[in-house]
Every structure is written in C-alpha cells, then in structure tokens.
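re: the backbone from monday

yeah here it is again, tokenized this time
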C-alpha cells in the first residue's frame, strides 16, 4: 500500500501491519473513520476501527451499546450483573436517591462506550452530588442507569471467537509522588512518556486535568497544586479507562480459566464474536462465584492496542486472532 497509515488509530495500524505481513492487500477507504478493506485472492473483508467486522451481525453491537438490554440478556443467561435502576428523566433522581443512600454508586448513560459520562459516587450521602452526576450522564444519552458499585478490581477480557485472548487490569489515571512536585507537575512529567498520545494513535492516552479530575481530588481535599509524599499514589479518577489516562497491566496468565469462560459466555449471550467484557473481580485467586465477580459492561468496539502494548506486561498479538477468524 502507498498511503501513510500512521495517522490511523493504533489498533487499526496494528491490524494493517499484520495484514501486510500476510501479503493481504490493504486499502484505506476512509482515513478519518479508520475504515479499511482487506483483499487476498477473491476474499474481501471490510473492517472499521480494527474490531468492527463482518464477524458480528448488526444486532450484537446494538445489544452491547444498550446497557439495559445487555444486563437483561446476561441476567437471563445466569451471568452476574449489578443491581440498579434506569432513569428516563433527570427529575427522577430525587425519588430514587433513597435506594442508593449510603452506598457506593455508579451513574452512567444507558448507551455509552469508552467510559464517557460514567461517574462513581462513594458512600453516597449528598443528593446534590447525585443529581449532578445524573445530569452529567444525561448529557450523553436520554436514559441513565444507576447501579450498585461492585467491590473489587476491574479487568478487561478480550473475547475473539470462542476464546478469551487477553486480560488487562486497568488502573485509573494516577501519579506517584516524590515529595517535591505537585500533581500537575507529576502529570506533565508522566505525559512525556512516548507511549502516551491523544486520539488513540499511541498505546496510552495522555492524562488530562479537567473538571472530573478536579472534583475527584476535592473529595480528599486535594487540588492540582497538592504535593504528594514520596511514593504516595494519587488517583485522579474513579473510572479506569485507558482512554482517560489509565494504565494497562496485562493479567492474561494470572486470571483463572473460569473467569475467561464467563467472558466467552457473556459474548455468546449477546451473539458477539469480538467483544470486550469488563468484569469486576474481588479476588482473582478465588474460583468464580456469585459473590466474587460481576460483569459491569460489554463493549462492541474493543481497542486491541492496549493488549499489544500494555503499560506493563507482554504483547498478546491479538490482531493475529482477528485475521485468523476472518479467514486470512
């Protein structure tokens, strides 16, 4: 191919590199949309953003996009999901507040991806905080889900076909203190890492200090000028998405097979061949049981670059499995 594809999202670049190694012709149909065509002999496949392919039928992503429908389908298939309610109007927040008072609570748009509009409230006591979170979530959708916050760590399971190919633990955006520099200065330094960029063209995203980070720090009476002690870890967000500056740590070999099978069951339940399953696990050394894990989200367009270039861990070369499954 003659075109420069280094401006594409990194996940698409990775897939193209593997395709070229396999002598597959690659045509970039829309650079901005990361839309490509693969050709080899008489076989033609269209791929958008590395993981949107002909492998998944139209309805599977629509189910995963709708968090309420996803929960219903998973629950009917005997898969653990958090309890919660759906709000159709922001005004409903006041009457539902008592259901979550004193509890760790997650507020998120019904249809979302990449963690957009998701806010976590610890030991909810302020109705103002609750209403603000609901109002922010309504900026992304016309329905909002409020759920119990499940204790444990969040892991991203990448399912391709009938197999969990890779597992990551995503750590929320953070800095480690040195006793000298402020949070802002530490963020500036961390963002100098050549692996960090903007717009998914690098393995990790740069940390942005915005309203969400400011409000999160205020809960612990900190601000951007706070100077953490030496080796003090300061988290800047509750959500752990790599897209918001989080760190990705490979856990593929550490996670028990039982959890990998649950991720595959979840993908099968919604009819997905390529799926990112976000599972909260309290103790990864404990075999799966109802009290130890819960699926909080399925993602219809999971990024693959973070499994190939984790902040810590080995390259899982997941693009190979995608091309295998496509028949190349």
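seq for it, each position gets an aa:
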């Amino acid at each position: 191919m003659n075109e420069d594809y280094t401006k594409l999202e990194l996940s698409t670049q990775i897939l193209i590199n593997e395709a070229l190694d396999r002598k597959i012709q690659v045509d970039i149909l829309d650079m901005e949309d990361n839309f490509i065509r693969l050709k080899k002999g008489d076989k033609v496949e269209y791929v958008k953003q590395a993981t949107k392919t002909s492998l998944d039928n139209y309805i599977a992503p629509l189910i995963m996009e709708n968090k309420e429908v996803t929960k219903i389908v998973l629950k009917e298939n005997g898969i653990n999901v958090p309890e919660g309610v759906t709000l159709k109007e922001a005004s409903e927040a006041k009457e539902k507040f008592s259901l979550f008072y004193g509890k760790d609570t997650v507020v998120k748009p019904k249809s979302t991806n990449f963690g957009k509009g998701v806010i976590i409230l610890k030991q909810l006591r302020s109705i103002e905080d609750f209403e603000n979170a609901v109002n922010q979530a309504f900026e992304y959708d016309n329905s909002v889900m409020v759920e119990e916050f499940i204790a444990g760590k969040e892991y991203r399971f990448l399912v391709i076909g009938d197999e969990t190919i890779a597992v990551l633990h995503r750590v929320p955006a953070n800095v480690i203190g040195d006793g000298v520099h402020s949070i802002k200065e530490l963020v500036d330094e961390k963002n100098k890492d050549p692996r960090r960029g903007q717009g998914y063209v690098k393995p990790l995203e740069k940390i942005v200090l915005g309203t969400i980070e400011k409000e999160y720090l205020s809960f612990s009476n900190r601000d951007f000028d706070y100077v953490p002690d030496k080796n003090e870890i300061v988290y800047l967000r509750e959500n752990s998405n790599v897209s918001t500056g989080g760190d990705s740590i490979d856990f593929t070999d550490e996670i028990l097979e039982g959890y990998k099978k649950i991720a595959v069951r979840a993908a099968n339940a919604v009819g997905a061949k390529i799926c990112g399953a976000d599972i909260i696990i309290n103790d990864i050394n404990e075999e799966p049981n109802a009290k130890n894990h819960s699926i909080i989200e399925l993602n219809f367009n999971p990024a693959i670059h973070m499994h190939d270039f984790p902040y810590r861990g080995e390259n899982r070369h997941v693009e190979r499995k995608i091309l295998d499954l496509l028949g190349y």
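Residues 257-269 form the longest helix (13 residues). The mean pLDDT is 92.
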